[in-house]
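Q: Got a minute? One more chain.
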Amino acid sequence: MLETLSNAPRDYAWGSPTAIPDLQGRTPSGAPEAEVWFGDHPGSPAALGDGRSLVDVRAGTGEAPLPFLLKILAASSSLSIQAHPDLAQARAGFAAEEAAGIPRDAAERIYRDENHKPEIIVALSDRFRALVGLRPVEDTQRLLSGFGEAPGVSRLREALAGAAPADALRAVIEEVLSGRAQDIVSDVSAALTDAEAPGFEEEIEILRAIVRDFPGDAGIVVALLMNLVVLTAGEAVFAPAGVLHAYQDGLGVELMAASDNVLRGGLTPKHIDVPELMRIVDTEPGAAPLLAPVAEGAGEVFDAGVPDFLLTRYATAGEPVSVPLDGPAIVLATEGAVTVSTAGQRVDLTPGTAAYAQDESEVVLSGSGVAYLARAGRRD
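A: Always. Here it is, folded:
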């Protein structure tokens, strides 16, 4: 089976009103368009060309839900700061909340399923900015050197210097999110107005926007501790279990394990469970986990080393590209015109449109454009 796959954009407040319409070549609706989901996740299942839901199609053929979810993501302001559990933590957390009788749709519910949620994002826009992982403490101290000497700023500097880096970062994050350090939040926010730190101009710009959009939010301090990643088109970053991340702005292709398990760490009005976040978060500082593609056949593979998903980018021009399949796959076009075909079927894609293949041994990509193919990951 080879069919077109489509879905309505999700209108989260942080979404861009123009990026996805521009990609798809249509008139903007005027509302924010944050994500388009291509998959069978029950939160927003995609539809085949004949109108059937992908959930119903897979269930009707006895297939398990897809292990991955492919998205177009367009941000114009910061998403919430998030971390996700690993598989063992997700299973234990889900069991505990089930036993406690917490409804799965309750605002305070954290573990809505038993899965982990590693994710990658590949930039489509010329620039895609994200906060990912915790910056080395010595670099954060250099940034803070341009924030003046307000008591809260000085207290933050002292707290970061008072223990081993991972322990100091853990203590600061827990203190600010627990509401015990509002002086740090307010003084850091005020200092950003005139802050200057050579080499950190873009970080300060991002933090000023966060203060504007989330005044008084404890996540301002958490964001200050994080690496700023600026991706150019075609570059990717990976957010594994426990790593704090918050996309800031830009257009990208996102691929993740199919899960709703999110622990938030600020920049949101939603529930934040500080003890549980601190239990699963990784506070070891270091460089952001960039993910470089590896040439493989006619494509470039973004392999995060998880069994749930694998993403491959194909540039189609000249000779058709044959892609062997051993399971379901979704092809998303992002540039030009891409044709996806099997022995007896054909789907023509334009940017921002997708095709779904099931029970096919291969698909052939042709035309002149760029497409991303998502499927389950490699298994040992």
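A: The chain has three domains: 15-130+231-280, 137-210, 294-375.
Q: Perfect, thanks.
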